[in-house]
Design a protein that fits this description.
By secondary structure, the chain is an alpha/beta fold. It has three domains: 21-422, no CATH class; 428-571, no CATH class; 605-706, no CATH class. It is built from 38 helices and 15 strands.
């Protein structure tokens, strides 16, 4: 029994505060509203915005100092679509920005009279997206962060009874009380009912619910989930809120921001409005009416259709268009003494008022449903018999592109539809995340670094256009980047879609990467991701690759990957753009060569720094001079040999004299016009912190790395030592080779995430394919 009590106690403590919230009086609700007006004056569109932003966050800009930034941010959507989901949806950067832009527009008030249709090709995850989105909306709406209050009336028979008694005959009173107790004829209960309020005590009087038995309270929840504030007559709301809210800043926002138009525009549902009017007619005091008005948390429950309703194409139409409650209607009539004052009738749309109404695929019965939404979305009202019902819901749907024909032909309705495109994934990191989710995080252990990402690049390339006007206008001739990119510039576009500005772009193109150009490139994603290898196709191919080539004794490299795609069926090969695999292999070869060079290179920063500082100092003197450098203290013989020696380190030994002298002249001009006069003398920077020094340092290091492999290429012992690394035979090599190989292996593991096995394989690959000579060129 102790364990049972403990379990129940822990369960009780685990249930959130919202689950335990009881209805509060209208006065208490107004206290909450006055304290946190932004929280308690939220429409469904604002709550939807807050939900998405609470899970997604603010996003990250990898280039915060970039003046040409267009706000294309990295949003982490895992908490929204992955965590806690049985079927995760992976949103790439393009769609994440699209979704955040949509919810920002919803919050600002651009949401009125529209249905938002998320369309995309089969296999892009539309249904999974919507299900997960609704799951998190339901979760958020039922927490303190998503708390909203709705109207619930608590009509006190003891207050209203005196008015009824004065207006009906004793016989009718007895019949009323009999019917009020469902015909049970409970004499004891009926006798209790006869303890009516004394005449004159009811006007403006009210007994708190806690002092009365529940039999004395008739509770009527608003089926349309109205915010209690809507019971304040429209003409008085502005002055009422001005008196209630003390936060001056929020009052200004409330009066000026479009997102709060509904506060002053919307009306309560017909049931609440008629109840208010009927009670006011009985009690003759708004204060007395408001004492019967309570507020309770708006509980969203998709399974019950409260706050969220989802229709699948096969769900049959709802035959009962008008919902009533005969027992409740009779009780209302008995209390008010008039069967015409309040009609408790509403449609199924009321249950998702201030909630989400969603259609899963526009076909079959859902085609009829979306057409039925035409007038509702256009006018914001729905006719229930002869009653006009307010409809203020967020309408969402998902649709395949071929089903657009089902909503065409209604021009006025087409204007009410906003399409949000869900393409196949176009972001490399997201594509890889899908493989990890399906096959497990350990899959990376089967690949050399970058190879798994390159599989994703091949898949994504099939989904992209092979010609980009925006990129061609920007880059011009793609051949100048042939070492890093393909002729169609798809690899460049993939990097930009992932939020990366490649380091291999030259300075001229980097400066030309303006905000206007970036928007043009991102805009092209609207027409991409419609064709190519679907998500299901990619998973099938990846499974085939693992099954055939994932071995314990070797890792999947680029040669294996290219061979795998070359062996695919013609249908798959035809989807891969011409020359992409060759370009991908060349980019990979160049990248790993740089990694090996970086890992083998010993930095001698002191010597590099002295050479650059001496060079900058010497440029200001005539050849043949002897001067002491003010930066290093070195005494310099400034002649052609001295300057040419450092220039060869900066430009490479192969550069001709004309280019070398032009470089010297340009560097001296920059030094005197900006580095010395502005950065050193005016801003007080040391020479090693200037822009010119940084640029020369980068050139110096680059050219040193270009030659770092030269001493080892002809040394067969170096190759054998790599293969024998971490084995007993490694001790047999001389100390210098052991030191170089150990340094190389350690850096590849620490800097570039290789395993020891992967580091050995990539080094042998670089040597055997003679990559150093393949990419040998002047700096």
């Amino acid at each position: 029994m102790d364990s049972v009590e403990k379990a129940l106690q822990n369960l009780d403590q685990s249930v959130g505060d919202l689950e335990q919230h009881a209805p509060v009086s209208f006065a208490e609700f107004l206290d909450y509203l006055a304290a946190e007006p932004a929280k308690h004056l939220r429409s469904v569109f604002q709550v939807f915005h807050d939900m998405v932003k609470s899970y997604v966050g603010e996003g990250v800009d990898e280039y915060p100092e970039d003046s040409e930034s267009i706000g294309y941010l990295d949003y982490d959507c895992d908490r929204l679509f992955v965590e806690g989901s049985d079927h995760p949806f992976f949103a790439d950067r393009i769609f994440a920005n699209r979704l955040v832009n949509l919810v920002e527009a919803l919050r600002s008030g651009a949401q009125q009279n529209k249905i938002y249709i998320f369309d995309g090709p089969p296999g892009c995850g539309k249904s999974t997206f919507l299900n997960n989105l609704l799951l998190k909306f339901e979760e958020y709406a039922n927490t303190e962060g998503g708390l909203r209050y709705e109207v619930v009336w608590r009509l006190d028979r003891r207050v209203l009874g005196s008015y009824v008694d004065a207006e009906v005959t004793p016989l009718m009173d007895k019949l009323r009380r009999y019917l009020d107790h469902d015909g049970r004829g409970d004499e004891e209960t009926m006798e209790d009912d006869q303890e009516s309020v004394q005449p004159g005590e009811a006007t403006g009087a009210y007994w708190p619910a806690s002092t009365l038995g529940e039999d004395h309270i008739l509770e009527i929840a608003c089926p349309s989930h109205d915010n209690p504030l809507l019971l304040i007559p429209k003409q008085y709301r502005e002055s009422f809120l001005d008196d209630l809210i003390e936060n001056v800043e929020f009052k200004w926002i409330l009066s000026s921001a479009k997102e709060y138009d509904w506060v002053f525009r919307d009306q309560p549902c017909t049931i609440c409005a008629s109840l208010y009017e009927a009670l006011l007619g009985k009690l003759k005091s708004p204060g007395a009416v408001f004492r019967m008005l309570f507020a309770r948390p708006y509980r969203v429950n998709r399974r019950l259709g409260e706050g969220i309703t989802v229709f699948n194409p096969g769900d049959p139409p709802i035959r009962r268009t008008c919902v009533t409650n005969a027992v409740l209607q009779r009780r209302i009539d008995n209390l008010l003494g008039d069967s015409n004052r309040v009609r408790y009738a509403f449609s199924h749309y009321a249950r998702t008022n201030s909630g989400i109404y969603a259609l899963m695929d526009i076909k079959s019965h859902n085609t009829e449903r979306i057409i039925e939404l035409h007038n509702i979305i256009s006018e914001g009202i729905h006719k229930v018999q002869d009653i006009e019902e307010n409809v203020d819901s967020l309408f969402l749907a998902v649709m395949n592109p071929e089903d657009r024909k089902n909503v065409q032909g209604f021009q006025s309705f087409s204007d009410r539809i906003e399409y949000v495109h869900i393409p196949y994934v176009l972001d490399i990191r997201t594509e890889v995340a899908i493989y990890r989710n399906v096959f497990g995080r350990h899959i990376e252990e089967n690949f050399l670094p970058m190879v798994l990402g390159n599989f994703a690049r091949v898949v994504i390339a099939t989904r992209m256009a092979t010609r980009s006007e925006a990129l061609l206008e920007w880059i011009g001739d793609p051949d100048k980047y042939s070492q890093y990119c393909d002729k169609n510039l798809q690899l460049l576009k993939m990097a930009i879609y992932a939020g990366v500005i490649p380091a291999w772009l030259n300075e001229e193109d980097r400066k030309a990467f303006t905000a206007k150009r970036r928007r043009q490139i991102i805009r092209e994603a609207e027409t991409e991701g419609e064709k190519g290898l679907s998500g299901r196709d990619a998973i099938r191919l990846f499974n085939e690759l693992l099954a055939n080539y994932a071995k314990e004794d070797s890792l999947i490299n680029m040669s294996t990957l290219c061979g795998f795609f070359y062996k695919q069926s013609k249908d798959v090969r035809d989807l891969i753009p011409d020359g992409l695999l060759e370009s991908l292999l060349r980019m990979y070869d160049f990248s790993i060569l740089q990694e090996v060079k970086e890992s083998l290179y010993y930095y001698n920063e002191d010597q590099i720094a002295r050479d650059i500082q001496n060079y900058l100092f010497a440029l200001n003197f005539e050849l043949g001079s002897t001067e002491t450098c003010t930066f290093t203290g070195d005494r310099l013989e400034i002649d052609e040999d001295f300057l040419a020696g450092i220039e060869q380190q900066l430009l490479g030994a192969e550069v001709d004299e004309e280019k070398r002298l032009a470089f010297r002249k340009d560097t001296q001009q920059i030094y005197t016009s900006r580095t010395l006069t502005q950065e050193i003398m005016l801003e007080g920077k040391p020479v090693t912190k200037t822009e010119l020094y940084d640029a020369l340092h980068e050139r110096y290091v680059y050219n040193l790395k270009e030659k770092v492999l030269d001493p080892f290429l002809e040394n067969e012992n170096f190759r054998r030592a790599i293969k024998d690394y971490a084995r007993e035979n490694f001790r047999t090599y001389d100390r210098r080779i052991r030191s170089d190989v150990t340094f190389l292996m350690s850096n590849l593991v620490e800097k570039f995430r290789y395993t020891q096995k992967g580091a050995k394989e990539v080094c042998i690959y670089v040597i055997d394919n003679d990559l150093a000579r393949k990419f040998m060129q002047p700096a």
